[in-house]
Amino acid sequence: MAPGNSRDEGLSVSQQERIEHAVQRCRTENGLDVSVLVGDLELTDLGGFRDGAHQLHAALGERAHDAVLIVVAPGQRRVEIVTGPAARRRVPDRVAGLVVLSMITAFRGGDLAGGVIDGLRQIAQAAGKGESLPSLEAPPTGSEVVAQH
Q1: Domains, the chain
Q2: How confident is the model at residue 134 (pLDDT cuts 50, 70, 90)?
Q3: How wide is the angle at C-alpha 98 spanned by C-alphas 96 and 102, nearest 5°?
Q4: Tens digit of pLDDT for each residue in 37-87?
Q5: Percentage of the residues of the chain whose pLDDT score is greater than 70
Q6: Residue 106, Cβ density class (10 Å: 0-12 exposed, 13-18 middle, ≥19 buried)
Q7: What whole-number distance in Å separates Cα of residue 135 and Cα of residue 24?
Q8: Residue 19: which of 82, 85, 86, 103 has the closest Cα?
Q9: Going by C-beta distance under 8 Å and a sequence separation of 6 or more, which residues neighbour residue 17?
Q10: What value does the mean pLDDT take over residues 118-123?
Q11: HEC states along the chain?
Q12: How many CA atoms lie within 13 A of 136 on its CB side?
């Protein structure tokens, strides 16, 4: 499952950097392995969006068990948060659902990057402190921020 093109909803370099900073904060302050994908998924039917997000999460490989993946598809008007089993103990489905609602509110107000960053903050707060994870020098296969234009 690969990201496709978002219509006119791309992120600026500054917005990407702000999101990357928030992701890195989750890793260092909370020990939470979080990835964010911003871009529409290549789907023939939007009913498969959740499955597509789960496939992207699985593509994180060994990281998937402990990882949280946030998929935001602006052109498709979809958001999904996928948690691995270990991450789900720190970020339960109830919390993920509330984070999605909060993000959608920001998106409706026209604040794509702010909604993602606030969602990351809420996830980190719910997860609590954890052992710091090393910095990701090069983006992994499921890169931290992918903006497709």
Answers
A1: 13-127 (3.10.310.50)
A2: low
A3: 115
A4: 999 888 887 888 999 999 999 999 999 999 999 999 998 899 999 999 999
A5: 83
A6: middle
A7: 7
A8: 103
A9: none
A10: 95
A11: CCECCCCCCCCCHHHHHHHHHHHHHHHHHHCCEEEEEECCECCCCHHHHHHHHHHHHHCCHHHHHHEEEEEEECCCCEEEEEECHHHHHHCCHHHHHHHHHHHHHHHHCCCHHHHHHHHHHHHHHHHCCCCCCCCCCCCCCCCCCCECC
A12: 21
Q: How far apart are CA 60 and CA 69, in angstroms?
A: 9
Tokens for 43, please give them: 């789907």
Q: How is residue 51 written in tokens?
A: 């499955």
Which two structure tokens, joined as six digits, stand for 82? 């996928």
Looking at the chain, how many residues does it have?
Answer: 149
Distance CA 75, CA 120 (A): 21
Could you tell me if 149 and 10 are in contact, meaning their C-beta atoms sit under 8 angstroms apart?
Answer: yes
